[in-house]
Amino acid sequence: MLTAIKEIINPAVVLDIATADKKLTLKEDGLDSKIRKLHVQNVPEKAFAFTLDHQPHGRDNRLFKQLSCYVDISIIRKA
Predict the structure, then answer these.
(1) CA spacing 20 to 30 A to 66: which of 13, 19, 48, 59?
(2) Which CA distances in Å does 22 have to 3, 9, 30, 41, 52?
(3) What are the DSSP calls for 10-29, one per residue?
């Protein structure tokens, strides 16, 4: 199941997990945010994380308005 999810999620929204440290760092840059970074520890080895705050720019912005920005558009083009 995890492999299937990784195949359809747009790589631009995937978050990097430091697998050696089992740590995920989430950066918050919103003006009203009370924190700048959130460190999640003890992340499972086979974890997968992606952001829900993705804001594409340029041509991608037009494409993302038509489809969910979480779906990898290159998968759609292959079909």
Answers:
(1) 48
(2) 19, 22, 26, 6, 21
(3) -GGGBPPEETTTTEEEEE--
Write the pLDDT tens digit of every residue in 12-50: 888 888 878 889 998 888 888 888 999 999 999 888 888
For residues 47 and 22, the answer to whether their CB atoms sit within 8 Å is: no
Q: How far apart are CA 72 and CA 79, in angstroms?
A: 12
What is the predicted pLDDT for the residue at 33?
A: 86
- Report the alpha-carbon distance of residue 12 to residue 71 in Å, rounded: 10
What are the residue boundaries of the structural domains of the chain, listed by start?
Answer: 2-78
pTM for the whole thing?
Answer: 0.60
For position 28, what pLDDT does the model report?
Answer: 85
